[in-house]
Amino acid sequence: MSRRGSVRLPSFVVLPNCRGYQVHTTYYFKAKVEGDKHTVDYGKQRSFTTEEIALPTLESLSAEPESVGLNMDESQQLTVTATYSDETMTDVTAEASYVSTDPLVATVSEAGLITAVAGGDATVTVSYTEDGITETTTVSVTVGVFDPWSYDFNGNGVIDIQEVLAAANDYFDGGITKEQVLEVLALYFG
Ligand SMILES: [Ca+2]
Predict the structure, then answer these.
(1) How far away, in angstroms, is 160 Cα from ligand 1 center?
(2) How remote is the CA of residue 30 from the centroid of ligand 1, in Å?
(3) Which ranges carry the BIG2 domain (predicted)?
């Protein structure tokens, strides 16, 4: 998609098809009116010179969310917006490219879907090019490592039944996974 290189014609030129005109070029014409019975030529030659229209150019790129916190195997879709010199904005999520600094921690698809792989930090660099102008932005990704001992609320080195029930509650609220509840339960039986 090219947004540049358009030719501006003077406002008095009304043509069904304005393609084929060169920028910074003078065109000469004679007006002619045709009807059913009459054709009138206007003898005086006129001219106009075309100008180039300064269409908006790509100015910045932003991604939402700016930072992502995920548990293992969770995903987050990014939304990428391009801002132009005339302050208009366009969703370019599908056209942008994505690179993860650490695919062993988090991968990112061509469509901008981040998926957690293992605990740690990664940065996703988002870039988009239009008319030879490239803008980039980054998204920080943190993948949490689950520690079942975090449910040892009283810090006594033992997971008791109240702490197992707290983990079960978090599971039913969607806060942790079934596997993580089982890790807490294993410490209770351990
Ligand atoms: Ca305890």
Answers:
(1) 6
(2) 95
(3) 57-138
How far is the centre of ligand 1, averaged over its atoms, from the C-alpha of 154 (Å)? 5
The strand pairing partners of 61, in sequence order, are 82
Q: Which fold has domain 58-144?
A: Immunoglobulin-like (2.60.40)
114 CA from centroid of ligand 1 (Å):
35
- Residues sharing a CB contact under 8 Å with residue 39, sequence separation 6 or more, in sequence order: 32, 33
Q: pLDDT tens across 99-120, in order?
A: 999 999 999 999 999 999 999 9
Nearest to 118 by CA among 52, 50, 72, 65: 72
Ligand 1 mean position to 73 CA, how many Å? 28
Residue-wise pLDDT tens digits, 48-85: 888 887 788 999 999 999 999 998 878 999 999 999 99
Question: For 87-156, where are the alpha helices, taking DSSP H only?
Answer: none
- Domain ranges (residues) in the chain: 7-52, 58-144, 148-189
